[in-house]
Write a structure and sequence with these properties.
This protein is of the alpha+beta class and 1194 residues long. The longest helix is centred in the C-terminal third of the chain and has 43 residues. The protein is elongated, with a radius of gyration of 36 Å. This is Calcium-transporting ATPase. Its main location: membrane. Belongs to the cation transport ATPase (P-type) (TC 3.A.3) family. Type IIB subfamily. It is found in: Cell membrane; Membrane.
Length: 1194
């Protein structure tokens, strides 16, 4: 099979610079061409253009030189064929966000209460103030005061408006920040094209029709194109077709390449034929956007937003589309691995249904909400009963029609008090604190080289108990150099001089290295004088090319002599082959194949080796064992990577071999040289790993490298310490230990291996995924494990996706790895992960600090309102005052406590893990301790305040009485105590010094000062709306003094040892072992919401119904109507979730049940196999976990 381009030269090369006249082909022609697949496409190209070269001529481009890059020409192409850009979805307007914020149930109740209160305050019945209505109208001094009844209702509405605006503004700024992040990811997205014969990288948005793009393993194609030269190219088209099998591309059979699909193997060049909205992905996107139903747009757009810029949004905004792809393509082509691919697909169901913290917070908020509801209901009932009994039974009055409005006004007042108790009880500040804390951290993490793609990943990282790290590039510098070589039966400890090697050997070695490597790999001169040469492309190949240069030879002339078009066949490197081979056709009709790869693998296929004279001699298995012992193992023990370079000649008389039979071809090789490549450990890594170990995080190295090399590097990094009985094993042995006789992974067997495993060498992507999944699912240790994984290759996709947090390499990482990850390390450095841990723990602690503060306020306010209402028939803290406490304490405190910067001491404690409660015993001690102090003070003031301060009592005042000094002091003291307790809340682990590092947080200082100033304004000038009256300077000093008492009391509480207080409950637990076991039983079914189950069933039926429909447009219309119904269900709006309400923050499980379009199911396929094999179009579940979607619905 010839993979080279057609022989005749292109008509229109760059040199001619022909920019006048139109192109010989229109946008519509190209669109129609790209809609065809495989053989149809080939015949269409032959009928219309002769061949691909003919198409290149019509597009005025050269297959070798590419475009000229002339701005006039590029502009013309933009106008003729469009730009490679798909406009993003419009951001929600501020008003839309305000409307969303108004949906909060407690706010709605408050609004209704306030409106009723307002209405009734304006209604004055004739004779209503007569004595007949009891004490109702008593104490109203003048008309003016009676007219002021509306103020309370108006003030409540005003407070609600502020709460809504703050929430909406927060959401708006969050979305804006998110889009900023998005555009940053997009700007960094570059692709390799050839212009003026030079290989350059340009931003994806600048690609035009006619560009010659170089594609390689791991790329995500940014535009549609037609293959003009390919080596062993396999593409995963599941994002467009839903078929998980990799599609082999070749010029003869299937040259059509589509945007949004992943290159899983091989390399090649394509001529770009459609960009932006004219590409296949763009067309689908346009069709979907035609629908006016926003919901339809949201769900389906995410699915198809594949190409260029928007493909990042696809994952990040709706959290599903491209997340699903790499999983299906894992190694689907290799049959022996098929079995292992199945469990992978379950990932999507359980993955990120809620982050650890969200799960705990939701539970906690629900518990608090229930308690608040009961308290508020009790308050209202007691108030009404007390009033009714007192008025009608004790005073013996009868209900008369003229008194009705006044009585109703009383009931409304009671209702408002009840609602206020509820409002204060429910910590709405919680979602706000989480959002602020996460958003603040994400912004700061950018500076620490962590680009966070999913907000919750940042907090999950704080809980991490294990990190499975790659070796190359993460722990090591990924700057490879050859330091030892074994050639001509001699082991050189440094790179030999050219004259130390026989000329024939040198010749074949230099040719082999120069030709049998990606031509995109180059060594360029340093950017700065005296700097190191720049390595471009594959780093291992750069090391080999570097050796060629050290041997005083040059690789470029050899490549110029044998351009890529002349390569007869290329077997590109992949994770199962672990080698790369290139075949050339000789002049006599024979063939020569050059190979290189992992030494123990290539040496097994060698039957000869070049001896001291440079002649091939027989190389027997015993010679090989000796070589492994004497050469390869010593190199590996020095931490070197060993690569073997070999060749094989196929004589012309034997005829052309069958290139498809790889086992036959890659055999009978002749070994030329074995080199030892050094990849030095990054200088900062050992220190970072010590920090991780001190912080209770186990670091494991998972690498494809030789076990001796891996062990040597692990010892250098500090992953393996002398005198410890940790395991180092190879993938093969690992699989033998964890699989049963049927070859299935057993969790019990895995549980015996992973706790001691530190290095897994020669591992396949499947091994990495199995290990990560096994550790996450394991319940063998006290706490469940939270696992972070680093990866850079396409093959790391499944493990990155399965992990709780996936880190992709920003520099060396492939597009597929970045798509599957949660955080991108922009400097590829392990020490950045330690910073992510620090930030993650800081988020967790910030939220705990806020909770400790918030719950103290809540407990005190609820008890005061409840007992006050029961004893004095009126809440000492009025509705508006409560709202002020709620709004200011919530919003501002969340701002103050959520922005505490992290410190190194965070890394000195063990991780919390999955099921550690949010509120520890120490925090519970603080909450209850401070509540006792505050309640004592407030009740003392409430019932004895008038005598202490020598003022009038404020208890039992009539309906519209003016505010009293007494109650103003109670309110003021309450706020002062909260203010000083906010300083106490800065420490949650029982530390003594609560002021430590306070000056490092200007936000905290300004919030405390700002609240204090606002409180002065409210008390002195708030008047009737805030039920306050101005206080004297003495009274103010007393209030502040009582507040400062909080700090002293805090010292007293921290002196009490927590371990004596066994009776204290903890709250906000994560998932327990028992719950997990049930989940496992249900194969993850319980983790999907029931509504989703219904949608799943619907999916299968849709497959059946729509299976035979051919045209996309009909499909889109059909789906538009179906989705209209399926997705009208209102979004969950509980307080704690409100910050998840944007599409970009929807956890994956909520969006999981995507309705697949026809392309995902394939046109003419039987519905059920498609549903199960591609996991319902990427929804993803193994057939075993399918009962709820197939059998039950059919």
């Amino acid at each position: 099979m010839a993979n080279n381009t057609a022989e005749h030269p292109p008509g229109n090369s760059v040199a001619e610079g022909n920019h006048d006249g139109d192109f010989g082909v229109t946008v519509m022609d190209l669109r129609e061409l790209m809609e065809l697949r495989s053989a149809e496409g080939v015949s269409k190209i032959q009928d219309t253009h002769g061949d691909v070269q003919g198409l290149c001529r019509r597009l005025k481009t050269s297959a070798i030189e590419g475009l000229s890059g002339n701005p006039v020409d590029l502009e013309k192409r933009h106008t003729s064929f469009g730009k490679n850009f798909i406009p993003p979805k419009k951001a929600k307007t501020f008003l839309a966000l305000v409307w969303e914020a108004l949906q909060d149930v407690t706010l709605i109740i408050l609004e209704i209460a306030a409106i009723i209160s307002l209405g009734l305050s304006f209604y004055h019945p004739p004779g209503g103030d007569s004595e007949a209505c009891g004490q109702v109208a008593g104490g109203v001094e003048d008309e003016g005061e009676a007219q002021a009844g509306w103020i309370e209702g108006a003030a409540i509405l005003f407070s609600v408006a502020i709460v809504v605006l703050v929430t909406a503004f927060n959401d708006w700024s969050k979305e804006k920040q998110f889009r900023g992040l998005q555009s940053r990811i997009e700007q960094e997205q570059k692709f390799t094209v050839i212009r003026k014969g030079q290989v350059i990288q340009i931003p994806v948005s600048e690609i035009v029709v006619g560009d010659i793009a170089q594609i390689k393993y791991g790329d995500l194609l940014p535009a549609d194109g037609i293959l003009i030269q390919g080596n062993d190219l396999k593409i995963d088209e599941s994002s467009l077709t839903g078929e998980s099998d990799q599609v082999r591309k070749s010029m003869e059979k299937d040259p059509m390449l589509l945007s949004g699909t992943h290159v899983m193997e091989g390399s090649g060049r394509m001529v770009v034929s459609a960009v932006g909205l004219n590409s296949q992905t763009g067309i689908i996107f346009t069709l979907l956007c035609a629908g006016d139903n926003e919901e339809v747009k949201k769900v389906k757009k995410s699915k198809k937003q594949g190409p260029s810029e928007n493909r990042n949004k696809a994952k990040t905004q709706d959290g599903i589309a491209l997340e699903i792809q790499p999983l299906k393509s894992e190694e689907a082509t290799e049959s022996e691995e098929k079995e292992e691919v199945k469990p992978v697909k379950k990932v999507n169901v359980t993955k990120k249904e809620k982050s650890v913290l969200q799960g705990k917070l939701t539970k906690l908020a629900v518990q608090i909400g229930k308690a608040g509801l009961i308290m508020s209901a009790l308050t209202v009932i007691i108030l009404i009963l007390y009033f009714v009994i007192d008025t009608f039974a004790v005073q013996g009055r009868s209900w008369t029609s003229e008194c009705t409005p006044i009585y109703i006004q009383y009931f409304v007042k009671f209702f408002i008090i009840g609602v206020t108790v509820l409002v204060v009880a429910v910590p709405e500040g919680l979602p706000l604190a989480v959002t602020i804390s996460l958003a603040y951290s994400v912004k700061k993490m950018m500076k620490d080289n962590n680009l966070v793609r999913h907000l919750d990943a940042c907090e999950t990282m704080g809980n991490a108990t294990a990190i499975c790290s790659d070796k190359t590039g993460t722990l090591t510098m990924n700057r490879m150099t050859v330091v030892q070589a074994y050639v001509n039966d001699t082991h050189f400890k440094t790179v030999p001089e050219p004259d130390a090697i026989k000329p024939e050997t040198l010749e074949v070695m230099v040719n082999s290295i120069s030709i049998n490597s990606a031509y995109t790999t180059k060594i360029l001169p340093p950017e700065k004088e005296g700097g190191l040469p720049r390595h471009v492309g594959n780093k291992t190949e750069c090391a080999l090319l570097g050796m060629v240069l050290q041997l005083k030879r040059d690789y470029q002339p050899i490549r110029d002599e044998v351009p890529e078009e002349k390569l007869y066949k290329v077997y590109t490197f992949n994770s199962s082959r672990k080698s790369m081979s290139t075949v050339l056709k000789n002049a006599d009709g024979g063939f020569r194949m050059y190979s290189k790869g992992a030494s123990e693998i290539v040496l097994r296929k060698c039957s000869r080796i070049l001896d001291t004279q440079g002649h091939p001699r027989i190389f027997k298995p015993k010679d090989r064992d000796e070589m492994v012992r004497k050469v390869i193992e010593p190199m590996a023990c020095d931490g070197l990577r060993t690569i073997c370079v070999a060749y094989r000649d196929f004589p012309a008389e034997a005829g052309e071999p069958n290139w498809e039979n790889e086992n036959e071809i890659l055999n009978e090789l002749t070994c030329i040289v074995v080199v030892g490549i050094e990849d030095p450990v990054r200088p900062e890594v050992p220190d970072a790993i010590v920090k991780c170990q001190r912080a209770g995080i186990t670091v494991r190295m998972v690498t494809g490298d030789n076990i001796n090399t891996a062990r040597a590097i692990a010892i250098k990094c500090g992953i393996l310490l002398p005198g410890e009985d940790f395991l180092c094993m190879e993938g093969k042995e690992f699989n033998q230990q964890i699989r049963n006789d049927q070859g299935e992974v057993e969790q019990e067997r895995l549980d015996k291996v992973w706790p001691k495993l530190r290095v897994l060498a020669r591992s396949s992507p499947t091994d990495k995924h199995t290990l990560v999944k096994g550790i996450i699912d394991s319940t063998v240790l006290e706490t469940r494990q939270v696992v972070a994984v680093t990866g850079d290759g396409t093959n790391d996709g499944p493990a990155l996706k399965k992990a709780d947090v996936g880190f992709a390499m920003g520099i060396a990482g492939t597009d597929v790895a970045k798509e599957a990850s949660d955080i991108i390390l922009t400097d590829d450095n392990f020490s950045s992960i330690v910073k992510a841990v620090m930030w993650g723990r800081n988020v967790y602690d910030s939220i705990s600090k806020f909770l400790q503060f918030q719950l103290t306020v809540n407990v005190v306010a609820v008890i005061v309102a409840f007992t006050g209402a029961c004893i004095t028939q009126d809440s000492p803290l009025k509705a508006v005052q409560m709202l002020w406490v709620n709004l200011i304490m919530d919003t501002l405190a969340s701002l103050a406590l959520a922005t505490e910067p992290p410190c190194e001491s965070l890394l000195l404690r063990k991780p919390y893990g999955r099921n550690k409660p949010l509120i520890s015993r120490t925090m519970m001690k603080n909450i209850l301790g401070h509540a006792v102090y505050q309640l004592t003070i407030i009740f003392t003031l409430l019932f004895a305040g008038e005598t202490i301060f020598n003022i009038d009592s404020g208890r039992n005042t009539p309906l519209h009485a003016p505010p009293s000094e007494h109650y103003t002091i109670v309110f003021n003291v309450f706020v002062m105590m909260q203010l000083f307790n906010e300083i106490n809340a800065r420490k949650i682990h029982g530390e003594r010094n609560v002021f430590e590092g306070i000056y490092k947080n200007p936000i905290f200082c300004s919030v405390v000062l700002g609240t204090f100033i606002l409180q002065i304004v409210i008390v002195q000038f708030g008047g009737k709306p805030f039920s306050c009256t101005a206080l004297t300077i003495d009274q103010w000093l007393w209030c502040v003094f009582i507040g400062v008492g909080e700090l002293l009391w805090g010292q007293l509480i921290s002196a009490i040892p927590t371990h004596h207080l066994k009776f204290l409950m903890e709250a906000g637990h994560g998932t327990t072992k028992e719950e997990i076991k049930d989940d496992e039983m249900a194969e993850g079914a319980d983790e999907i919401d029931h509504a989703e189950m219904e949608l799943r069933r619907g999916q299968i039926l849709w497959f059946r119904g729509l299976n035979r429909i051919q045209t996309q447009i009909k499909v889109v219309n059909a789906f538009r109507s179906s989705l209209h119904v399926g997705l009208e269900s209102p979004e969950s709006r509980s307080s704690i979730h409100s910050f998840m309400a944007h599409p970009e923050f929807v956890p994956q499980s909520e969006e999981e049940a995507r309705i697949p379009t026809i392309e995902e199911t394939g046109d003419e396929i039987d519905p059920l196999p498609s549903a199960s094999s591609s996991g319902a179009g990427g929804g993803g579940e193994p057939p075993s976990a399918f009962p709820h979607s197939c059998e039950s619905s059919i």
